[in-house]
Design brief:
The chain is of the alpha/beta class. It contains 17 helices and twelve strands. It has three domains: 73 residues, no CATH class; 183 residues, 3-Layer(aba) Sandwich (Rossmann fold); 54 residues, Orthogonal Bundle (Arc Repressor Mutant, subunit A). The strands form two sheets. A nine-stranded mixed sheet has the order 1-2-6-5-4-3-7-8-9, sandwiched between helices. The chain has a three-stranded antiparallel sheet with strand order 10-12-11. Helix 8 links the parallel strand 3 and strand 4. Helix 8 packs parallel to helix 9. The longest helix is centred in the last third of the chain and has 13 residues. It starts with a helix and ends with a strand.
Length: 363
C-alpha cells in the first residue's frame, strides 16, 4: 500500500506540492521517490540542493506507517495524485496537490459540473443576496458549488448550494485539526454529513497560516470549470483567485454590484478586462456551454392567497421591508401582522433577514 508514502510526504511541513511532484515525476513511483537517497535526488535537474538536504534531514523523523494511521484514526479520507479518481480538472493545473485529505462524500459531487464562487469576506448585503439569487437559479441540478469556507461570499455560496439541493465542496487552508473561521463550523458539519465534502492538501496538524490561503485558492479554481467572483476589492484574495482562473485557462465570470461599493472596484476592473458578466444562472450556463436538466417545482407566487397575505406579499416586493414599514402600509395591529408574517414564513413566501426585515422567499 503506497498511500503511506504520500501521507509521509504531506506530513513534512516544509515541502510544497511542486517539490513532491518533481520527485514523483522523476522516479515515476511514490515509494521509490520516498526511499531515494540524497545522491539520487541530486541527479534531478533544477531541484534546489538546499530544499533537498532539508527534506532528507526532516524525513529521518517520519514513519510512513504512523502518518497513515494518524490520518485514518481521525476519520479522514485520502485521495492521492496517482489514484484514477483524482479530479481531472485539478490534475490539469501546473502545481496540483499531490495528496488530498477529505471528509464527507466527495464522489457524490459531480466533478464534471464544478463551479467556484469567490469574493470578499466582508461582503455587502447586496453582494450576498446576488450570489444567493444566482445559485438559486441553478437549484435542483447536478452542478457542484466550490468555495473556500471563509466568511462572506464563501459562506453564503455554500449555504445557498445546500438550500437549493446542490452539492458543495469546501476547500480549507489548514489541516482538519482546525476549523477556520469558527463561524463556519455549522457548514463543516453539514458538508461532512451529506451536503458534499471538505478537502485540503494539508496534513491534519497544519495550522491556517496566512500564506496557505492563496495556496488554497488554486485548488478552489483548479477544481472548477469556471469561477464566479461575487465581490472583490482592488487588493483582495478574490482577485488572486480571478488571476488563477485565467492562468488555469478556465472561464472567469463576475457579478456586477453598486459602483460606490469598494468591494466592486475589482469586479469592474475584471469586467473591463474581458470577464463575463453574470446576473442570472443562465449566464453561467451559456458561458460554460452547459446543458442541464432541471427538476420542475411549483413556484411560490402571490396567486390564490387571501387578501391580507397578498397585500403583505406585494408590499414586500423586490426590496426587503422592515416590520414597522409593513405595519404602516397595511394598517394591521402588531399581533395580527406577526401572525400573518409567521404563517407566510412557514409557507416559504417570505423570509426574515437581518435588521428585523423581510424579503420574499425564492420564487
Amino acid at each position: 500500500m503506497k498511500t503511506k508514502f504520500w501521507t509521509a510526504f504531506a506530513s513534512i511541513e516544509q515541502l510544497d506540492s511542486t517539490f513532491i511532484q518533481r520527485l514523483y515525476n522523476y522516479f515515476g513511483d511514490v515509494e521509490t521517490a520516498w526511499n531515494a537517497k540524497l545522491s539520487d535526488l541530486k541527479q534531478i535537474e533544477g531541484l534546489s540542493i538546499r530544499k533537498t538536504e532539508n527534506y532528507i534531514e526532516k524525513k529521518k523523523n517520519v514513519n510512513p506507517e504512523q502518518t497513515l494511521d494518524f490520518v485514518k484514526n481521525k476519520g479522514i479520507n485520502i485521495l492521492t495524485y496517482d489514484d484514477d479518481r483524482y479530479p481531472f480538472m485539478l490534475r490539469q493545473i501546473s502545481n496540483p496537490p499531490m495528496t488530498l485529505f477529505y471528509k464527507g462524500d466527495l464522489f457524490s459531487c459531480n466533478l464534471e459540473r464544478t463551479l467556484a464562487f469567490v469574493g470578499s469576506r466582508r461582503a455587502s448585503f447586496g453582494g450576498k443576496e446576488a450570489v444567493k439569487t444566482i445559485i438559486t437559479d441553478l437549484k435542483n441540478t447536478d452542478i457542484t458549488i466550490v468555495s473556500g469556507l471563509a466568511a462572506g461570499i464563501d459562506a453564503i455560496s455554500h449555504e445557498s448550494a445546500i438550500t437549493n439541493n446542490l452539492k458543495t465542496i469546501g476547500v480549507i487552508a489548514s489541516g482538519f485539526d482546525y476549523i477556520y473561521p469558527n463561524s463556519s463550523k455549522y457548514l463543516y458539519e453539514k458538508m461532512e454529513n451529506g451536503a458534499g465534502a471538505i478537502l485540503t492538501e494539508y496534513y491534519p496538524t497544519f495550522e491556517p497560516i496566512k500564506f496557505r490561503f492563496p495556496q488554497r485558492n488554486r485548488i478552489v479554481t483548479g477544481l472548477s470549470y469556471g469561477t464566479v467572483v461575487g465581490e472583490a476589492a482592488m487588493k483582495s484574495g478574490a482577485l488572486i483567485s480571478a488571476n488563477l482562473t485565467l492562468e488555469q485557462g478556465r472561464e472567469l465570470m463576475c457579478i456586477p454590484g453598486a459602483i460606490n461599493n469598494t468591494n466592486t472596484e475589482g469586479i469592474y476592473k475584471l469586467l473591463k478586462d474581458g470577464a463575463t458578466m453574470v446576473t442570472k444562472g443562465d449566464d453561467i450556463l451559456n458561458a460554460l456551454n452547459w446543458t442541464i436538466t432541471r427538476i420542475q417545482e411549483n413556484k411560490k407566487t402571490s396567486q390564490n392567497l387571501d387578501e391580507v397575505t397578498k397585500l403583505i406579499f406585494d408590499i414586500i416586493g423586490i426590496e426587503p421591508k422592515g416590520f414597522d414599514e409593513i405595519q404602516i402600509l397595511t394598517g394591521l395591529t402588531t399581533d395580527k401582522l406577526l401572525i400573518h408574517l409567521t404563517e407566510m414564513e412557514l409557507k416559504g413566501l417570505i423570509e426574515q433577514i437581518e435588521g428585523d426585515r423581510y424579503k420574499r422567499g425564492i420564487e
